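Entry 14. Structure prediction run on the chain below.
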Amino acid sequence: MFPVRQTDLGGARHRVPDTVGGTMSASQTSDVPTDVPTLLVKIFGKDRPGITAGLFDTLAAYSVDVVDIEQVVTRGRIVLCALVTEPPRGLEGDLRATVHSWAESMKLQAEIISGIGDNRPRGLGRSLVTVLGHPLTSEATAAIAARITKAGGNIDRIFRLAKYPVTAVEFAVSGVETEPLRTALVTDAAALGVDVAVVAAGLHRRAQRLVVMDVDSTLIQDEVIELFAAHAGCEDKVAEVTAAAMRGELDFEQSLHARVALLEGLDASVVDKVREEVRLTPGRAR
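Output returned:
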């Protein structure tokens, strides 16, 4: 069930759904000493617009400060967690009663847990692990999570990136350096039937907006040179050269020259026909 986040209220700042389809940014608004009393307010139930605003409007009456916020909506069910400072002396009981009353009026459930300070600091070494599967099985997910743990890492949150045409989820991991984590996960990826990418977390990661990819059998479903070969009547021969290159018997330049040579004499008008035959990969516009 995704998106899923381990709501430990002390992990990385990230996007937080406000209502169905909406997002807001969660950020720490104050540095709370480790010995200061805090309240963890948890709201869960059927999602609808106005829940986030309603909770914090209720809390505002008690002059509490927001330490952290985490919120996720999964299949129409919301889990909203707010870590706030303790209200002025003598008002905690009233705050609890008011929050529970508000939640009941919204047909939601509420839980309020007393504690001290914020969450423990995250471990050194922070990485983002992206896992893609078609499908993404529970067995593969379990194996990836177990490997992260075995490598010494802790999963701070999990967030779904895509659901079509593949399921892609991102694990935010701390406590282990990126390189050994990448080595551990990539080794297992092929056997699990998933693709895994591991990169160091940080602001530079959030700023990346350029995607570089192959076209044939990636952005499109076809191998263009094989489409041309079909019109030239030599599709099988071109496929044989491609297979030899994949086996390492020919380098790219040799295989390209060999395949193009087989297309000699093909009329230029075929270019337009091939353009019409190209099939874009599902999800390419997402």
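The mean pLDDT is 85.
Filed with the rest of this week's runs.
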